[in-house]
Amino acid sequence: MKNNNDQPGKVILEWLQVLSLDRPLNAVALTAFVTQTLHMIEHSVQMYQHVVLGLPTKLANGLLFFLDLEWNHFIFNTLYLVFLAIILVRMRLWSLLSLDKEAIIPNIFITGFTIQSYHVVEHTYRMYEFLTIGCTPCTGILGRFFNMVHFHFFLNIAAYIPILLLIIKSGVFKQLFYPAGEDQVRQTIWEETLKSPAPMLALILVYGTYTGYHVDIYLLGITIFAAVGVSFFLSIFEGGLYRNMLDALTISILTAMCINMSYVSALAVVLVSLFSARVLSGQGKFRLNYIAFSFTLILILSSPSLAASRWGTYNLYTFFTLLLVLGISRAAFTKTIDIVLAFIFSWIVLFIPYQLSQLEASLMDTLLIIPSSALKLFTNPLLSLIAFFIVPLPYTFPANRWRIAYPVACAALSFSLSHVVPVDIAAFAGITLSNIGYIIISRGR
Predict the structure, then answer these.
(1) Are both 144 and 287 inside the same structural domain?
(2) Which domain does 379 fall in, by range?
(3) Which region holds residue 62: left if phi is over 0, alpha if psi is between -120 and 50, else beta?
(4) CA neighbours within 13 Å on the CB side: how many for 308?
(5) Helix axes 69-91, 104-133, angle to 10 degrees
(6) Per-residue pLDDT tens for 186-239?
(7) Which of 54, 231, 262, 350 has its CA 20 to 30 A from that of 242?
(8) pTM (predicted TM-score)
(9) Given 127, 144, 176, which residue is the final one in a domain?
(10) How far apart are the C-alpha atoms of 43 and 123, rounded to whole Å?
(11) How far apart are CA 366 and CA 359, in angstroms?
(12) Residue 134, phi then psi, degrees to nearest 5
């Protein structure tokens, strides 16, 4: 090889291209980035709890406080070090060490790897203390001389910078955002946002909180943390990070609004919801209606009347007006107003006659009650939420002649199930079963 001024820059550029083109290697790099990003979020929450909220070190345990602190951080840091080691060995970054300015990334990476190696030594010693004397948190080697929350926060930043610079400089970071399949049309951020129920659900949550609805902030934080983490990992292999993040926020907000279970149960609903869509949808354009599926699980595992009872805490008139205006706007943008109307009409036609048949009233009285019953049903917030934001979820309904049959089937199955289970479970289960039926039929063609 010739020794010239351009050589270091050319060699480093070649190795960055290796990272970009070597799919297993860039998957490891992205996994390392995601792992440390989530770990940095955890440490940032610890800093907020300790510095802003004034909690002592023993109580500043981050979002995953219900997991064992020492095991949690030991596993996170050890995994991250393993990923860094794979990248270091595979790219032979030590061969690129130089005082030349072009070698700044390899130099920073190896420095970060060294710091992370010591970081793991700290946590290994902390594990020894934990297993022998049972401390939580344990001080480690240098923790007895420094504030542990601050010390480990800055250790993690020092170990985070190298992987961040490496994946940005190599262009690998962009792979998280673009869909993996060439047949998937790239949409603008505004299109993705307006098609997702997440913004609307966020508005509902904010409005409900303002009018007295209590939200378990830790439950919301934990579910968002878990769901965003899963969406990051999914995006390593399938791209579409922004859409996956919107899916994650949707599941998180729904869980926090409607669930009444332990943190572990809430995480289970989030994980099952996000992964089941991939399992059932396969490689096709259609996918599981994860909202209906999640709500079905939530209502089965918790109190069946939980969702319906909580709507009573809102100012229903203002809430319904907001829901209707935003719902119609979203339906117009996504061109799904026909699906919405078909579902609402089918629901009214099926449910009102049945409800009226249970009343001991004359035919004339029954006819007079029908308009008021229809209006009452139409202005039900839960039905409006289902009609505008759950039944017409993108990629979950047919785009052919069965387009109108789908919402009718959702309402019909819900009506049938309402005879054996509470109506709120029936509503979401009907949509779930219709969606799964559509997926099975489409895959069979």
Answers:
(1) no
(2) 189-444
(3) left
(4) 13
(5) 150
(6) 567 777 787 788 887 888 777 777 776 667 777 788 888 888 888 888 888 777
(7) 262
(8) 0.72
(9) 176
(10) 14
(11) 8
(12) 75, 25
